[in-house]
UniProtKB/TrEMBL annotation:
Catalytic residues identified in the record: H110, D140, S214
Source organism, top-level taxon: Bacteria
Designated name of the protein: Probable periplasmic serine endoprotease DegP-like
Keywords: Hydrolase, Periplasm, Protease, Repeat, Serine protease, Signal, Stress response
InterPro entries named among the record's database cross-references: PDZ, PDZ_sf, Pept_S1C_Do, Peptidase_S1_PA, Peptidase_S1C
Source species of the chain: Rhodobium orientis
GO biological process, one term: proteolysis
Keyword Repeat applies: yes
Family designation: Belongs to the peptidase S1C family.
Length: 496
C-alpha cells in the first residue's frame, strides 16, 4: 500500500526546541521552513448561466404583452443549460504537499468538488495543473497530483493522538487569496462531533481560520501536520476562534487508500445503531451508559450472518471498548475488509462474543439491494386493546395499518393514543408508533405488552426498554421510567 512520503531533506531539519511554558516566543523559523510546502488550490467550473428576469405584469390584451412575452421567452431559451451562455466560476482553497518527489498534494473535497480545472499555485509563483487522484466526501478529503519540474518542498504527518488540549498549533493557508498566511493558537478541544459526516472526530482550535484556509495544514510546534483545516463556526464568515481540523490519524488512512486505489475501502458491519443514554442503560441493568445499541440489522449483511440481532448492545469491537455510539462507525471503517473480528454484545442480560467477517461499505452503498419479502395474507381477527405507560394500545389490523400508514412488514402492537403528560409522551412516543419489543422480548398483542411491563416492575426495574417502529419500519429504542408513571384516577374515562 502506498504510504505518505517522508519529506525531502529541507523539510526534515532538526526539530526546534519545545515551546516556552507560556507559549512560543516566535514561530518565524518554523513558518519559514514550512511555507513553501503549503499551496493555493484554484479551481474553475463551467456552469450554464441561469440568470433570468421575470417579465413585467401587463393588462390582458395590452399592445406590449406580445412583445415582452416574445423577448423574455427568447432570453429564457438562451439561458437554459443546453442553450445558455456558459460562465466560468472560480473558487480558492488551500492544500499542502505530502510527497515532493511524486507531486502529491492533499486538500479538502469541498475545495475541488465539481471542478473542471484545478491549478496549484506555489509560494514561489509557480503554477501547475493538477490531476485528481481521488476524493472522500465522508471525511472531506481529496488527493491531487502534479508533475513537478523539480522535487517539491513537502511536509510529513505527525501523531494527532498525542495532541493535548492547550498545546500550541500553527495554521498556514491562503485566506482571501492574499498568499501564504500564518496564524497561531492552541488546541481548544478534541473529539468534536459537528455532525458533518459519519466519522466526525475533529480537533478544535482557536488559531484563526478564514475563507480560503480550507484544506490547509494544522501543524504542531515540531512542524508535523496533525490536522487538516476544514470548517469553522462563524456568523459572519470570518474567524471567531472556533475552527475544526481533521485529525491526521483519520486523514492518513484515507489519503493512503485514495493514492493506491483512487477510492476508499472501509469495513462494513451492516447495523443501524442508537446512542445509549442513562435511561436505556438503566433499563438494560447497566451501571453506566456506554456501547452502541443495535436498532436494525441489514438482511444478509455481515452482522446478520454473524448472529447480531436488533436489541443487542455492542460493548466491544475487535478487542476495543465501545464507549459511545459514534465511536463504532470509525472502528468498523478503519478495520480491514474481510477481517474476522470478535464483537462482544449484551443480549437479554447476558454477554456473548460473536465472530463477524466484515464486508466492504462501498460495495453496499453502490447498489446492493435488500430482498423484498412478501407475507401471506391472514384472516382478520378481532383486535385487542390495552393501556400501559400512558399509551393506548391496539393489535395491528388492516384498518389500523391504513389509518396510520403502517407497512405490512411492520409487526407488533400499535400505539393509538398517548397521554400528553405521560412518561411515554416525554420520550416522544406518538400515535402510529408500533411497539416491536418490550425489554428485548417480541410482543404481538396489548396483553403481551402489559404482562411484560408488570413482570419488569415486579422485578424491581425502574424503567422499561421499548423497541419502536415507525410506519416504514425504521426502528428506535426508548426507555420509559416506572417511577414517572402516575396512578390512574377512578373517574378517568375509558379509552375508546
Amino acid at each position: 500500500m502506498a504510504q505518505t512520503a517522508e519529506p525531502d531533506s529541507s523539510a526534515s531539519a532538526a526539530r526546534p526546541a519545545m515551546p516556552m511554558r507560556h507559549g512560543p516566543d516566535s514561530v518565524a523559523d518554523l513558518a519559514e521552513r514550512l511555507l513553501d510546502a503549503v499551496v493555493n488550490v484554484s479551481t474553475t467550473q463551467i456552469v450554464a448561466d441561469k440568470r433570468s428576469v421575470k417579465p413585467p405584469k401587463l393588462p390582458e390584451g395590452s399592445p406590449f404583452q406580445e412583445f415582452f412575452e416574445d423577448f423574455f421567452n427568447r432570453r429564457g431559451r438562451r439561458n437554459e443549460p443546453n442553450g445558455g451562455v456558459p460562465r466560468r466560476v472560480q473558487s480558492l482553497g488551500s492544500g499542502f504537499v505530502v510527497d515532493g518527489e511524486n507531486g502529491i498534494i492533499v486538500t479538502n473535497n469541498h475545495v475541488i468538488d465539481k471542478a473542471d480545472e484545478i491549478v496549484i499555485n506555489f509560494n514561489d509563483g509557480t503554477k501547475l495543473t493538477a490531476e485528481l487522484l481521488g476524493t472522500d466526501s465522508k471525511t472531506d478529503l481529496a488527493v491531487l497530483k502534479v508533475k513537478p519540474v523539480k522535487p517539491l518542498k513537502s511536509v510529513k504527518f505527525g501523531d494527532s493522538q498525542k495532541i493535548r488540549v492547550g498545546d500550541w498549533v500553527m495554521a498556514i493557508g491562503n485566506p482571501f487569496n492574499l498568499g501564504g498566511t500564518v496564524t497561531v493558537g492552541i488546541v481548544s478541544a478534541r473529539n468534536r462531533d459537528i455532525r458533518s459526516g459519519p466519522y466526525d472526530d475533529y480537533i478544535q482550535t482557536d488559531a484563526a481560520i478564514n475563507r480560503g484556509n480550507s484544506g490547509g495544514p494544522l501543524f504542531n510546534m515540531y512542524g508535523d501536520v496533525v490536522g487538516i483545516n476544514t470548517a469553522i463556526i462563524s456568523p459572519s464568515g470570518g474567524s471567531i476562534g472556533i475552527g475544526f481540523a481533521i485529525p491526521s490519524e483519520i486523514a492518513m488512512r484515507v489519503i493512503n487508500q485514495l493514492r493506491q486505489y483512487g477510492e476508499t475501502r472501509r469495513g462494513w458491519l451492516g447495523v443501524r445503531i442508537q446512542q445509549v443514554n442513562d435511561d436505556i442503560a438503566d433499563s438494560l441493568g447497566l451501571d453506566e451508559a456506554y456501547g452502541a445499541l443495535v436498532a436494525g440489522v441489514t438482511p444478509d449483511g455481515p452482522a446478520a450472518k454473524g448472529g447480531i440481532q436488533p436489541g443487542d448492545l455492542i460493548l466491544e469491537f475487535d478487542g476495543r471498548k465501545v464507549d459511545s455510539m459514534r465511536e463504532l462507525p470509525r472502528m468498523v471503517a478503519e478495520t480491514e475488509i474481510s477481517k474476522d473480528v470478535a464483537v462482544r454484545v449484551l443480549r437479554k442480560g447476558k454477554e456473548m462474543t460473536l465472530a463477524i467477517t466484515l464486508g466492504r461499505l462501498e460495495d453496499f452503498e453502490n447498489g446492493n439491494k435488500e430482498d423484498e419479502q412478501v407475507e401471506e395474507e391472514q384472516e382478520p381477527e378481532v383486535a385487542q386493546t390495552g393501556e400501559a405507560l400512558g399509551m393506548v394500545l391496539a393489535e395491528l389490523d388492516p384498518a389500523l395499518r391504513a389509518q396510520f400508514k403502517i407497512d405490512d412488514s411492520v409487526t407488533g402492537v400499535v400505539v393509538t393514543e398517548v397521554d400528553p403528560v405521560s412518561p411515554a409522551a416525554e420520550k416522544r412516543v406518538q400515535a402510529g408508533d408500533v411497539i416491536v419489543e418490550v425489554a428485548q422480548e417480541a410482543v404481538a398483542t396489548p396483553a403481551d405488552v402489559e404482562a411484560r411491563i408488570k413482570e419488569l416492575a415486579d422485578d424491581g426495574r425502574r424503567s422499561v426498554l421499548l423497541l419502536l417502529s415507525n410506519g416504514t419500519g425504521e426502528l428506535r429504542f426508548v426507555a420509559v421510567r416506572f417511577d414517572e408513571i402516575a396512578e390512574p384516577e377512578d373517574d378517568k374515562e375509558p379509552a375508546q
